[in-house]
Amino acid sequence: MNLINLVYDSLKLKKSDAFCATKIGISLEKYRQLKQQITNIKSLVQDDMDGMMKDVINKRMLDIIDDDTILNNYVGELEDQLTDALNQKKERVVEFKEDLEDGTAEIKGIAFAEPKSPEEIIRILKIDTDKWKLSSYWNKQHKDYWLISAMVTQVKHEPQDLLVKVLENFNPFTQVLPEPKITDKFINPSVAVLSIQDLHFGKEGNDGVIKDFKDAITNLVLRAYHSHMLAKIIYVIGGDLLNMDTFNGGTTSGTMVDNEQRAQQAYQDAFNAMYWSINYLAEFTHELHVVYLPGNHDRLSSFHLAHALSKCFNDDRVKFDVEYAERKVVTYGNNFFAFEHGDVTKKNTPLVYATEFAKDWGSTIYRTCYTGHFHSKKTIEFVTENEHHGFSIKHLPSLSKTDYWHYHNKFTGAKRQAVMELHDKEKGKISEFVYTA
To answer: Which of 4, 75, 398, 425 would be 375's cystine partner, CB 3.0–4.6 Å?
Structure first.
């Protein structure tokens, strides 16, 4: 406690100056000098002000000044400021007490006219209505002013309110992409298919997935770029991009999974990684087609992520398909590329695609369905009487590491890989590149 506070508290003892000076440990002359300064300050407080208000103002003034400022005649300046405030009869807040555990606060202030409504109370006490809700208030009239006291509680925002606020403030930076690094060494255009599903950002033991993901993207696109003309890249994102879909760490269906990160941090890491990858891939092709697929872990949160990404780019070379659909098809010449997550039965997969995408099916020769979900590499071929009208289902591997659930159920041993396939517009698949983490 500083010296000015010790002298102030000694006044309550009602003892002699000599006794108080000795108790504090200062000279009698010094004690009387400080006592006189405190007396001058107290005289500024109105005589009819109640004890509580006096104590609040006195304590506030004592917190402002110290021994050095008193000795430098700062009190005179403070007296002028307080005198001006009282003469102007300016409303002010004099006390704010917050209870962090209960989420409540008490605010006290003075006004020189009686408040007539809750709105006036909010204005006088400067209550931030985005954070606090006025619960109750009362006024007490004194000779020339009103003492106001109010209780407030923290505003608890509903999820839909937070979403509305986020959307209102959503103003992403629009990325300007550089010119693509297209080589003139190759004359035959090709399309690259890059589907990296099941990254499971936030999963237990998966902390190195960002580096593995970036290494895979860099390795695959550079190898493809130095051997083919990449007229187009079909880039599939989603498909359990996030390990969880809720704040409490559960999947879309409510299944609790092993997580190492909070949902918010996992979302941020995944968003930043996808944002980087789109910028990087766009440098090596005339057209980057980003296709979003939902997974069984993150149907809602991954959709939000993909939708937000689509608003960050304003370039004709980058095309986004972020519509929520669990089966999607992209064609390129004679090629029919189908995409899904793979968490449902595949017994009728060829018939479903032939029915739902009949025109695309009938105008193509080479048909492939790319799936994930199983974290392993596998190909199933369905062949009709004409082998050129077959249909392949490819389970693509994952870069994700094994968590406890997969370990416990003996779902281990699969290589952590990413695959990029290249297809000629007329002749179908011409090359495949594999990256192993």
So the answer is: 398
